[in-house]
Specification:
single chain, 480 residues, mainly alpha, Fumarase C, Chain B, domain 1, Fumarase C, Chain A, domain 2, Ribonucleotide Reductase Protein R1, domain 1, 3 domains, 4 strands, 4% strand, elongated
Length: 480
Amino acid sequence: MMDKKYTTYTNPLTDRYCSKDMSYIFSPQFKFSTWRKLWVALAEGEKELGLNITEDQLEELRANADNINFEEARKIEKEVRHDVMSHVKAYGLQCDKAKGIIHLGATSAYVGDNTDVIQMTEALKLIRVKLVNLINNLKEFSLKYKDVPTLGFTHFQAAQLTTVGKRATLWTQDLIIDLEDLNFRIENMKLRGVKGTTGTQASFLSLFDGDHDKVKALDKLICKKMGYKASYAVSGQTYTRKLDYQVISILSGIAQSMHKMTNDIRLLQSLKELEEPFEKNQIGSSAMAYKRNPMRSERIASLSKYIISESLSPALVEATQWLERSLDDSANKRLSIPQAFMAADAILEIGINVTDGLVVYENMINKHINEELPFMATENILMEAVKRGGDRQELHEVIRELSMKAAYRVKHEGKDNNLIDLIIESNSFNMDKEEILSIINPRNFVGRAPEQVVDFVNEVVNPAIDPFKDSIGINVDLHV
C-alpha cells in the first residue's frame, strides 16, 4: 500500500538543501505575520496623524499579529478568490474591535510588495552571515598554507609555481566582491511604502482631507516603524521590479564565485592534491567502492548553475511590466525569488562545510612539482652558471638537448623527470649537486605569494569581515 505522504512532489530545496532559517523567511507564517505587522504600522501611523483609531483597536491588532488563523483565511479565499482580502477578513475575525480599520486606505501591494522587500532584506542578511563564515574559513586556510608551494595552472597546464594559500585567496577575493555588493544592497533596500492603487496616494489624500503633508508623513512613519530609512520616491502600483533583478543578481554573483571555487577543488581532487571532507561511512560510488567523489563541490556547482539561470526571471519580469503594473510578475516571483535564496543559502552552507575540512596532500603536490619544476628551473640554473663565467649560448644548447632527453623519458617511457640529474652529470655548469639543488628549491619560485596572502588578509579580508565578527563560528548541519 502506498503512503500518501510520498505521492506528491516536494521541493528538494527545503527537503534536502537549504537551512530552516532561510526556509522560515519565505514561509506562510513569516509572510502573513509581516502583513499583519504592516497593517499594525499603518493603523498606528494613521492614528498618530489624526484618524479616529483607538488604542484598544491597536492592542487587538498587535495581540494577533503572529496568531494567524490559516484555515479561516483559506476558506475565505476559496470564496473571494483574493489572497489579501481573505487575510483582511481572517484578521478581522480575531479583532472584532479593529476589523473596520484593517488595511484602511491601502491596496494589496501595500502588504504584498512591502513584505517582499522585508523578506528579501532578511534573507540577504542571513546570506551575509553565511558568506562571512565562508570567507573566514578561506582566510584561515590561506594563512595556514601560504608558504606551501604548488604548481600554478594556466589552461590547466602546469605553469609557474604559486602556493596553496595564495590560490585560495583568488576564491576569497571573488567572495569579498560579492560581500561588498551584498552590503550595498542591504544598506539601500527601500520599501514601497504607502502609495495607493496606481502610486498616486489618492486614497490616502482622501483619508487626510487633502493634507499632502500628512500623506507624506505617513509614508515616512511606515518606513520608520518597519525599520527602513526610506521608501521609493515614486512607484506605480508596485515597487520597481528592477529591485528584484538587483537582489537576485547578487545571489547569481555569489553562485558564480562558488562555482569557480568548487570547479578548482574538483580539478585538484582529481590530481589528488586537495580533497573535500569525506565521512567515514560515506559511499563515493555504488559500483566503484574505492572512489572518493567530490560530491559536495559538485552539489554546489549544480545549485550554482540553477541560481545563475534563475537570475534571468526577474530580468524578464522587469523588462515586460506594463505601465503602472501587470500581474505577469506574481507567479514568477513566488517561485524565482524564494528558490534563488534557498539555493544560495544551500551552496554557502555546503561551502562552509567543505572549506572547514579541506585536506591538502603535500606529498602529492611535491610529486607534481618535481615532475615539472626541472624544466621551469633551467633559466635560473643558466643565469647562475653565466655569473660563474659560463657562455650563455653554449649552456642554453646543453640545456635544450638535456631537456629533450628528459621530456622523451617522461612522455614516451613513463618515467620520472631526470633533467636535474642530467644537468648535474654534464659538468658544464661549474656547480656541484648541492648548489644546483639549492637553486631549484620550490620556495625560490613562488615569488611574493606568501607575502601577498598576509597583505590580502590584513588589508582586505579582515576589514571586510570584522564588522560581522560576532556572526563567525556558526555550525552547519547538512541534510545529505
